[in-house]
Each structure stands twice: as structure tokens, then as C-alpha cells.
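Dear colleague,

As promised, here are the two records you asked about, laid out in our usual form so they can be pasted straight into your sheet.

NAME FIELD: protein one
SEQUENCE, THEN STRUCTURE:
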Amino acid sequence: MSEPGTVAHRLAELGITLPRVAAPVAAYVPAVRSGNHVWTAGQLPFVDGVLPVTGKVGTADGLVTPEQAREMARIAALNALAAVGELAGSLDRIRRVVKVVGFVASDPSFTGQPQVVNGASELLGQVFGEAGVHARSAVGVTVLPLDAPVEVELVVELR
């Protein structure tokens, strides 16, 4: 059982189990620390090593809805937090979330990338409160690795 006031306790209150760190899909590491900051690699929305949804958001076939993509952004953010936690030793060391970059594989006519990446941003706010409020970019791209609908990167400052 986690102590009140810890990030682990807050995750438990939210009914969230932090995943294991996702294995890299190429030649990189999940996160790097420089000084008091940690940069994560782009994290895909893996659940137990599998992408639950693949494809582009906003296409006529509707294979990936904006709502599904929003949930995938939330999952990718959890994967990024797992990478930070493993590198930092504890998520309680996070002073604040500095920046989120979200990539959304989407149809050229789709303009809802900010709402998709809100899945990540809102999760961080729920977990860290004011310390989870961050600068952000939400970018539409043609395709992402393994045909993932979203990819999320974090920059956090440690205590």
C-alpha cells in the first residue's frame, strides 16, 4: 500500500496501475536524464507489449476515432511516466511536468490533434495537480512507428 501524498497513492486513487517500461522498438533508450531534467523518447500506446489500436485518426473509414486516439494518448503518457519513474527511481521526484509533445497520425483534413493530446495532458493534471500543468505541442503527422495512432514525449524536472 502506498503512503498518502505520494504519486503511487494518487495513481491508486485514480485506479491506475503504472505499466512496465515499454521496450524500445529501435536503437534508443526510453528516457535520458541531463541535470534535473528527464526527456523521454517518444512513447507509443503499448498495453502489455501490444498496440490496442493502429491506423490514422479522422479517416473516412473511422478505424481510429478521436476518442480512441485520446485514450491512446493517455496510455502513451502512462508509458512515458513509467520510463521517467524507472530512470528517476520514483515518480515522487518529479517537481513538475515541463513539456509534452504529442504526435497524432491523422488524415490531412483532421484538425483535432489538440483534443487527442488532451488525453495525455489531462492525465498528467490528474496525477500531479498544478505540477502537471505544462507547455505542449500537438502535431499531426502522416504515419508513426508500427502504425500507432499517437506518440507522446515528456520533459520533466526532478527535485
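NAME FIELD: protein two
SEQUENCE, THEN STRUCTURE:
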Amino acid sequence: MGSTHEAMKRLELARRKHPGRNRAGMTLVEVIVGVGVLAITTLSLYAGFAFGFAEIRLMQENARATQILMERMELVRLLNWDQVVNLPGYVPKNFTAPFYADNPANPPTNVLIYTGTVLITNAPVAETYSNDLRMIQIEVSWLSGKVIRRRQMTTFVSQYGMQRYIY
């Protein structure tokens, strides 16, 4: 019995030296603060991901718009002076293009559609060769979320340009 009595005394001494040791749980305030910090961190992480994905989507839309503009500019580059100036309607004034270019003839429903315009005008120059120069502006617009976005490219076509060297 002596050893049990000594063990109890040592336990009592340990309790007196470290009085808070037997209360190792957390208080309600600490739990609420911890849950609050966790909630703010989770919401911030979610908002960061949502912003990042929205930015990636916008970059993809811009890249596709640039691709469409470049395709149209390449078509214009292949035309000769008569096709650009003397054949009205040869270059379509309006066009549409889907976001996904893999099946442009039959795009899936609810897909982003780009609408474009082609404007051929006299070049804004006052030099003597101004009648031999045309300005071509191609603009693409699309609805991104609730915002209408636009991109534009401009080039000049000359009557005595590159196409004359081919013949």
C-alpha cells in the first residue's frame, strides 16, 4: 500500500506544479475564432480560383478573336485589286465564327459566337496615290458574360501591291 500512497502523492504534486494540464480542451471562443479563420481562408481560396478561371476564359476568347481576325486578314491578302475594289460583295461585309473552330459549319448550341464586319474604305491619306490605296478594317465582337468585347485589325491594300509581282 505504501507504493500506491507514494504514487498518489507524486500525482498531486504534479497537479500543483502544472495546474492547467488536466484542462487540455479548447474554449468555445477559440473554436469560433478558428472556424472563422478557416471560413475566410476557404472563401478567399474559392474567390482566387474563380477569378483565375474567369481570366483564363477571357484569354481564350481573346486568342480566338485574334485567330479569326488573322484568318480574315490572310484572305484579304490573297485578293487582287479588282476583287477588293471593282467587285462589290466579293468580300462579305458581315460574318460569324464559333468559339470552337473544329466544326464551324455546325456549331453546338449555346456556344460563344463571334460576329464580324469588314469595312473597305479609301485610305486616309492626301498623297497623289490615294486613289490606288484602300484601307480594310476587320472587327470582331462577342458577348463575354454580360460584357460586349471587340477586337479590330486594319490593313492597307494597294493597286500596285504584291499581287502584281505574281503575274
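A couple of things worth noting about protein two: Helices lie at 2-17, 28-77, 81-86, 163-166. Residues 98 and 108 are 9 Å apart (CA to CA).

Best,
R.
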